[in-house]
Amino acid sequence: MNGDDRRTVAVASFAHGLVHTYELTIPLLIPLWMSTFSADAATIGVVVTVGYGLFGVGALPSGILADRYDTRTLIAASAVGMGAGFGLLAFAPNLLVLTVGLLLWGGAASIYHPTGLSLLSRTVSERGRGLAVHGVAGNLGTAMGPLAVSVLLADLYWRYVAALLVVPGVLIGALTLVVHTDPTGREEVEREDGFRTDLSMASFLSSSKRLFERGFYVIFLLVVLEGLFYRGVLTFLPDVFETAAGSGAVFSGLLRDMSGYLYSGLLLVGVVGQYVGGWLVDRTDPVRGLILVFLCLAAVSTAFATVAADGSWSLVPLSVLLGVFLFGEQPLMQATVADHSSSDTRGLSYGYTYAGVFGIGALGATLAGYVLTRASVASLFAVLATVAVAAAVVSAYLRGRHDGSANTSVSLFNN
Prior knowledge:
By secondary structure, the chain is mainly alpha-helical. Helices cover 81% and strands 0% of the residues.
């Protein structure tokens, strides 16, 4: 890569890591919010769903913005907006202001993925290498950001930590604007057949209709189930670990103090899962891999339901397995979306994917909060196991549907 490419990849990578740092720091703050605002899990679950939901649903309009406006400016606005959202969280006197802060974060965060991927795909000459570095940065933000926050929370009040998180958003926003990158190709949005993309609402509706007529509704159902499981399991996981630590003599004391680090460690081993998932994409049918991974997630969730109430140390290896399978599923899903969408609707298919996983999937936070309030940790993981089994069934249906009409599918998805 030349100098401009390296700078472009660096700018996008820093912003990508920041998005996931903020996203997965929120679960660490949830137990503290419940205590500060005297709120139960069901109430906090609804509040968090609002922010996470906008993070996903906003991906579709953000994709349209990325095709019309300077992407560096949009990335800068995203970074600063996310920092401002956490600044509002730091000073929130009540749940209403906390909700507004999460909305500000979610709206700003929703800008990044369509915009950052658009910037890289249009301007970096070695696109594959650029996307790989970008993905690694996201994984590092997912793992190392919450770990750093866990360390800070051990010594600082949560409001101070939230205020400190304003700083990286402002710095990365400023860095994005001042670092020179080559803007070539950003102004013209081209189809693969060489014609300029029509960004009208009529074109959007027409492309959406064409996408779903080709069977994308099955994929969309699958990514929604993925999102429900992902958000349902991660949102209250630090609180789940604390609850488990207090429920049994085996898992108490030292391990209770380590609950935040256990959550961060789960995210860290997710990097390994991402690598393994990518390795499987190149060696097997991605849908077959999805069936296997969702069944494994169902098994791990069932095991969690069995041992969580006893506060057993077996939660540690189970957390490792959960991290590997949870994040190992993502490359398989991304490959599946690409395999089951045509070239002229590829970008739109990923827009719907993000809206399904992070938008509708945000309801997993509400679901988890409700179950934890009305029932128990074991009940939550039993529900999550059911969601994972449903995803495995839909994956099996997708594979059978594709195998049963292979010739037709080839003609449809390659035209």
